[in-house]
Amino acid sequence: MSELQLSNVRKSYGGLEVIKGVDLDIKSGEFVVFVGPSGCGKSTLLRMIAGLEEITSGDLTIDDMLMNDVDPSKRGIAMVFQSYALYPHMTVRENMGFALRFAGVPKVEIEKRVMEAANILELGPLLDRKPKQLSGGQRQRVAIGRAIVRHPKIFLFDEPLSNLDAELRVHMRIEIARLHKQLAATIIYVTHDQVEAMTLADKIVVMRAGVVEQVGSPLDLYDDPANLFVAGFIGSPK
Ligand code: ADP
Ligand code: MG
Question: Which residue, judged by its Cα, is nearest atom 1 of ligand 1?
Answer without folding.
Answer: 39
